[in-house]
UniProtKB/TrEMBL annotation:
Name under which the protein is recorded: Large ribosomal subunit protein bL25
InterPro entries in UniProt: Rbsml_bL25/Gln-tRNA_synth_N, Ribosomal_bL25/Gln-tRNA_synth, Ribosomal_bL25_long, Ribosomal_bL25_short, Ribosomal_L25_dom, Ribosomal_uL5_bac-type
Chain ranges of the Large ribosomal subunit protein bL25 L25 domain: 5-92
Species of provenance: Shewanella surugensis
Tree of life domain: Bacteria
Length: 95
């Protein structure tokens, strides 16, 4: 199964910026990999909460539509809230 998530590049970085994104129901994320520069992105929480419940989400190649350009990635790590059903941050790796 293929997944496509619409994301935006974020220019503000840091703890305060990430908190503001989470308060606005967005998920901060980063894409990194060998030989490429890391890209900080964000996307809507509602876009990811349902598809991350599928088991193949963690093993398949995902497509991130970042400002009109498709990027193939894999999920490397995901941080969740301690007791709420919220995703706090996702690390992606270039596929």
């Amino acid at each position: 199964m293929s997944y496509t998530i619409t994301a935006q590049i974020r220019t503000e970085l840091g703890k305060g910026s990430s908190r503001r994104l989470r308060h606005a129901n967005k998920v901060p994320a980063v894409i990194y990999g060998p030989g490429k520069e890391a890209i900080s992105i964000s996307f809507d929480h509602k876009d990811i909460i349902n598809i991350q419940a599928n088991e193949d989400f963690y093993t398949s190649v995902l497509t991130l539509a970042i400002d009109g350009k498709d990027t193939k990635v894999r999920v490397q790590d995901m941080q969740r809230h301690a007791f709420k059903t919220l995703i706090e941050h996702i690390d992606f790796k270039f596929a």
